[in-house]
Amino acid sequence: MNGVIIFGTCTGTTEHVAGLLAEALLPEIEMQCLDVYKIKPASLNDWDFVIAGIPTWDVGELEYGWSDIYDGLDDVDLETTVAMFGLGDQGSYPDTYQDAMGILYEKLIERGATGGIGFTSTDGHDFDESKAVIDGRFCGLALDEVMQQDLTEERVVAWAAELKRAIQSEGMDESSVENASERSPA
Ligand SMILES: Cc1cc2nc3c(=O)[nH]c(=O)nc-3n(C[C@H](O)[C@H](O)[C@H](O)COP(=O)(O)O)c2cc1C
């Protein structure tokens, strides 16, 4: 499988978490961490599997690097599989908690990517509204390095284990993903 972790960040937190995740995926899965500013929208198809890490900024908005990708995606048909992780702050932004993860996820799926991998429970998070909640679950791994820093590592390790299982059960560790857009979220 040809995979990558792509992160956007304003103050470094999401890059830090991307590194933790890359470590937690080893030794079974080796993935490089790449700053979103190094890619173009169509480059997402260079990988079979993209793990996208995005913090929410400016009250419910996308981090700026991912925002540029988002704006350029309308001309791109995605063929890759995606999983998401998001950074947010449920204490100060309970009405827009993790919104960017949800907004970006919806766009990637709309453009043809396969999703439904790595959804997580909202249990343990205290917030009012989030665009990252789909059918009662976060559409990826939600992390809060402001209010719940002590939980990040265990959440990342547990999520990495789930991703490994998903990758194996989808057969992505052996072959590239075909007909990506035909599968719907779980
Ligand atoms: C001005 C500002 C606006 C923010 N807006 C939100 C928000 O709407 N929703 C949310 O969940 N977190 C919000 N956050 C929290 C950030 O997402 C959080 O601090 C994150 O860890 C930053 O990641 P980064 O260091 O990778 O940029 C905001 C933070 C700041 C300083």
Task: Give a written overview of the molecule.
The chain contains four helices and nine strands. By secondary structure, it is α/β, with parallel strands linked by helices. The chain has one domain: Flavodoxin domain (Rossmann fold), CATH 3.40.50.360. The strands form two sheets. Strands 1, 2, 3, 4, 5 and 9 form a six-stranded mixed sheet that branches. Strands 6-8-7 form a three-stranded antiparallel sheet, with no helix packed on it. Helix 1 packs across helix 4. The longest helix is centred in the C-terminal third of the chain and has 18 residues. The chain is globular. The site of flavin mononucleotide has 22 residues, from helix 1 and strand 3.
Short description:
The chain is α/β, with parallel strands linked by helices and 186 residues long. It has helices at residues 13-25, 64-72, 99-110, 152-169; strands spanning 3-7, 32-35, 49-57, 61-62, 81-87, 120-121, 133-134, 137-138, 141-143.
